[in-house]
Amino acid sequence: xAKPSTRQGLIDYCFRKLGAPVLEINVDDDQVDxxxxxxxxxxxxxxxxxxxxMYLKYKITQExxxxxxxxGTDGVxxxxxxxTQNVSGYGAVTSNFYESSNFIAVPEHVIGVNKIFKFDTSSxxxxxxxxxxxxxxxxxxxxxSVELLQYAMTKTYLEDIDFLLTTDKQIRFNQRQDRLxxxxxxxxxxxxxxxxxxxxxxxxxxxxxxxxxxPFVKLYFVALLKKQWGMNLIKFRGTKLPGGIELNGREIYDxxxxxxxxxxxxxxxxxxxxxxxxxGWWIMALNPYFLQGSRGEQRxxxxxxxxxxxxxxxxVTFIPRKFVNRASIIEEVTASKFDDNFAxxxxxxxxxxxxxxxxxxxxxxxxxxxxVTLTISKERFEDFISPFxxxxxxxxxSSRPREGDLVFFPLGQRLFEVKFVEHExxxxxxxxxxxxxxxxxxxxxxxxxxxTSIDEIDTQVDDVGYITSLQLxxxxxxxxxxxxxxxxxxxxxxxxxxxxxxxSAPIVSISTSPSNLPNSDATAVAFxxxxxxxxxxxxxxxxxxxxxxxxxxxxxxxxxGGSGAAATCSIEKTFNGVVRxxxxxxxxxxxxxxxxxxxxxxxxxxAVGIASLGAAGEFNQVNSIFVQNAGRGYSSAPxxxxxxxxxxxxxxxxxxxxVVQGMRSGTQARVKSWDYDTLxxxxxxxxxxxxxxxxxxxxxxxxxxxxALYSVTSYNKDDTTDKYNEGDIFESEADLLIDFSESxxxxxx
Length: 749
Description:
By secondary structure, the chain is α+β, with helices and mostly antiparallel strands.
């Protein structure tokens, strides 16, 4: 359905584009037929794909000779036009004008005539002793043994001689008359002589069905339909439909007009042939007897350039830039990637070495500022690179070399960035440009995504750019804990005043238990929070609920740089509750705080515990469990369960440059290195093309290509690479020469 091959198929396709059958397109069938005809006519007269070049053979008849003969022989072939005008003092003045009818009728579908050829016995083309025959005999003795370039040059040479010695006959052609005027001596012509007409014929879409599926035809017909639809609706302007909807044909009409103007500009720019390709001779300022660059000459020059580049050039890899993200206001490119690669031959203009400043020693280390100028064929790029560029959705990609594209120069194993593309040097030789000059500088990596699938290119940026580290967990282990129960404990702490101006967590002191037994004194810690730029106490949690209390203890909050915080508590003197959690195994591999579950008592209140994590070497462990609520009614110590880490066991090996993704945050990055022994994953391009802040501690990191899966225990956002790390080398070498431990390293020992 999307590829119309008939007139009705084109109509149905374009109606669907405008909204049918959901919307009613208010255009009459006769109007539709007229618009189809207008579209095909415009396409045939303007678009280079709407015509075909053909050669019509015509046999001259006696009637043609008689009609074309000049005045002097019984007036044959002469058309007389008489003009009469009344002149004061003279009366009626009659003037006779004579016009020769030296034309032949051509078919209606011919829309342009380039030139004609005559089969005769002239000195150039007749007999085996002709110049043309001898040249072919000498230069092309065996056609299959010569190169096409030699054939093209010989053919051009013959055409030049033929043009100079036997110039083409003057012809006049008017498409609306369907007449081809031949300004020749018709009296010297012979009956049954053949002439061949080099002409352009409009393609009949009923014969060549592909015309109906031409992208320009479809777009242009839709625009004409939209314009006609809007014009039909304009007369109903102001008419209101149920619901207050008002028909607005003007807007539809204006949209159609704008689209037609844009398409006609595109036709003139991209698809329209120059006037000389449509008609034989024009009155012009240039000498019509000398070519100003024919297509044959242009093709010959292009072929010579292509061959030269293949012989003397270097095979480079062209890597187009894809614009992933752009700033919405100033259209600044915020993210880009390189994932295509194309081999193409290029001539190195800077043959005596790299241009530019070269290797420069700065205070930060060695800086390479090499430049190179490469020349590539315009035709080769347009034929073998542009059609095969693959652009993802919502990604901009140019069809010609652009500033920002990359070129891998294999001789120096270096990656260059195109800084300027010169497309007019040499300047319009024979009316056309044939090459692109790429002025390139050594590529400076700025966190772009480079994934060409060619290792020697992708590894160019292995250790540069903004690289961050993820500490992962190879094997996790669940923490375990037990609970102690007793009576006379603090059941819960109530924060009566959160205070103000705290700079750190204050110290919480609880009066001693009267039992004077070990671990009977209650202990607690305070946690602060910040609101409106001011810290205050958020909550107080028990590390030990104590036991043996007969009266409510006193809670004192001191230190932390603030004041005003106050708390009270409640005690339970009758029933057992959880007074303390004892960790029997700290576990390993926790990225987030696990949930602590305490078994319910037979009757009463379930205790609530809150875990806290602490770093033990490179991994997070459960270092304590606070008592948020001691509960009530336990007859024996309850079972305490601590949730597992997110990943109990990591699997797989991350691959260089593959994309990894956080399973909770959705953040993506590129792998730079993976150390299985230390479980450190170094990545770059974190969140390129997204608005995600980064990876979450505790989430799983999955390799989208390798399938590797490990959990994050910590995420170091600092850059782990130093672009100018050569400075460390200079410093270490200098220390070998100068001993700064001496009081005067520059003096005598």
